[in-house]
Specification:
The structure is a homodimer of 386-residue chains. With 386 residues, chain A is α+β, with helices and mostly antiparallel strands. Chain A has twelve helices and 18 strands. Chain A folds into two domains: 132 residues, Alpha-Beta Complex (Aspartate Aminotransferase, domain 1), CATH 3.90.1150; 246 residues, 3-Layer(aba) Sandwich (Aspartate Aminotransferase, domain 2). The first copy, chain A, is globular and about 65 Å long.
Chain lengths: 386, 386
């Protein structure tokens, strides 16, 4: 396994400790945050929020974007707007970062877990159909028979930036008339055909946390083709204040969820270099793909990249033969200050989600037992100034 | 009234449009945000969060501080930690920014509104006693008789930075054994005797929004003397992750509520100049106090400042004779680009809180009808470099 470690290290000849992912900044980021501080508009008002929203619209081709304080709150607000209510169930995958299911719980709802599929690591359409087989539809929508609870939404997540079977999932959601909200926190730059992730349901959500392809420190976004939903997201994320020159009137329970202008200033600089950063992510992934091709003891996971979809390769994922091999690699790398990570502990095994309804999830457990998240930091030469 | 406008303008001879409050930045803020960007630690990890927490502990004398993404989420998390549950009532004042009651609603609880008192604009101990008179106590705590709902907490707010009757309120809370959480969003620098606001109950919360005495763009903090609560606040605000070198395990529903390091970098610079900014706030308030002394048609509100407590005079508040006079001043000032504001519409009159239990609130309505929030921006000469 030392050979694998040496290979990964060879991609970053200048680095000692090697993080899983690291922001790529240059002069432009410094200039824009300084400009923002000088303007004094660092908070709830300022041009950078608007500019970053426009840039995300241009890049993704999704007509509306609403900047939010982070990706978790973006998903929470999107679920509220999708009509998720206390007591509901929201179908999602067990193989995800905990934020996906936390956001569901913030609504007072529970996740209902289905499996992921082998080809994508994302929500499995077959498993989704299996779960819906235990539900019945009437004039009021879908009810989970065993629990008597309403099915309020379907939330697939594009794991590590690999596009799930979103076309098939969107078809099931449409035919079932269940709102589809795409958790695209990890998939900025990932597309199904030419269509950006986050655009297949009624809303999608992005994350700009420090470990993502681009970062605003903390930040996220709701993207949607629905103008009314976008307006409502903006209204609710800015305390639901009714415009007035000097009176403070709010027409519903609102949220302090707007991305501060300071963070958006960093985000504008990051959006400018996004195409170059995605090239860098792909360059690194291509090196992994070539190096690990044809090996029998380890597989580099590439999802459906090049097979109808494009992955952003946010993190690079190696699949080992079994849990002992995966653990051995995790131990070796971390001892050598190469900070690899295991796959997230499947959410249905966490104490707060243990009793949530679910299908069998053998593929989820197989990925958890065998996967290691490996460094995908963009090499310095891709961090060009705009 | 033009005389009053001319006076306020005279405090800022260099300014055209005059905002209600404006951040005070210098080279130090630019240097620290640039240092933060260069470090690449702009997000969930980094030294500035720890440093800002230490500085708030030193400044307030409150033993523990946990940096949060904004003041609203800080209050929400504090209420969760205080044990507020769905269906509960939380006693608070109707005269507050909407965030106070929104945070209560996020818990699934409802605000129960009491009046403010004439001397402080903060929660009235008499009105609190009146409300508790309609409640009964048994082994499980307090129940509001009319609704049958549990009283889970008391949340006073130090309006515009004037310290409420917090000693008396804390005594009632202690005797009643109801958790006291202080909303000190507006009162950084305000003290009861020598004791900083936010330290009288089990937890207090601060805000560093762009309109506050100091700002982190968006940000807030939970302060407490209780180490266990502080540790739990840190754990829950950082996704409740259990420490492990490479496994992702979370032991409860957690939140992505940590203040990003980028915002904390700005906050560290702001904390360094806080004493000087508070001097500036006081200088401006002193000018108001002198100018408006002895006038019959308008009063400059000073709370109990100098009478056992110290106000930070976050915003300066003029009280006119009646609603028409207040409206006339609001119209005149805003037309002349002096951006004064009315007092927040009392929360019990907003549609989402209209049916919440409450006492009569005549003082709240009187303040709302007569108060105008006036500029309190710190003059440039107080913005010295450290």
């Amino acid at each position: 396994m030392q050979e694998y470690i040496d290979f990964i290290r060879s991609l970053y000849p200048d680095k000692g400790a090697l993080p899983l992912h690291e922001p790529a900044f240059g002069k432009m980021e410094e200039e824009l945050v300084v400009d923002c501080v000088r303007s004094t508009f660092v908070s709830t008002v300022g041009k950078y929020v608007d500019e970053m929203e426009r840039m995300v619209v241009d890049f993704t081709g999704i007509p509306y974007a609403v900047a939010i304080v982070n990706g978790t709150q973006a998903l929470y607000l999107a679920l509220l707007l999708a009509g998720v209510k206390a007591g509901d169930l929201v179908i999602t995958q067990s193989l995800s970062f905990v934020a996906t299911s936390n956001a569901i719980r913030y609504c007072g709802a529970d996740p209902a877990f289905v499996d992921v599929d082998n080809n994508t690591m994302g929500l499995s359409p077959e498993s989704l159909r299996e779960f819906l087989g235990g539900c019945q539809r009437d004039a009021n929508g879908w009810t989970h028979i065993a629990s008597g609870r309403r099915i309020a939404a379907i939330v697939p997540m594009h794991t590590l930036g690999h596009v799930c079977q979103i076309g098939e999932i969107a078809r099931i959601a449409r035919e079932s008339d269940i709102p589809l909200v795409e958790d695209a926190a990890e998939s900025l730059g990932s597309r199904e055909g030419e269509t950006h992730t986050g655009s297949h349901g009624i809303m999608g959500t992005l994350s700009f946390n420090g470990n993502k392809v681009i970062t605003t420190g903390g930040g996220g976004m709701i993207v949607t083709s629905n103008e009314a939903l976008a307006k409502k997201a903006k209204h609710l994320s800015t305390t639901a204040k009714v415009p007035h020159p000097y009176e403070f009137m709010h027409d519903s329970v609102g949220y302090n969820f707007r991305m501060p202008n300071l963070n958006a200033a960093l985000g504008v600089a990051q959006m400018r270099r996004l195409p170059s950063l995605l090239e860098g992510q792909r360059y690194v992934a291509d090196q992994y793909r070539e190096f690990f091709a044809g090996r029998s003891d380890v597989t580099f996971f590439t999802g459906r990249d090049g097979l109808g979809s494009t992955s952003n390769f946010w993190l690079n994922c190696l699949l080992f033969e079994d849990l002992p091999a995966r653990n051995a690699f995790l131990e070796m790398t971390n001892k050598q200050k190469m900070f690899t990570r295991a796959m997230w502990k499947p959410l249905h095994t966490l104490p707060m989600f243990f009793e949530c309804p679910r299908t069998d999830v053998p593929v989820t457990m197989d990925f958890y037992n065998r996967a290691v998240h490996c460094p995908a930091t963009v090499p310095g030469r891709f961090v060009i100034e705009a």
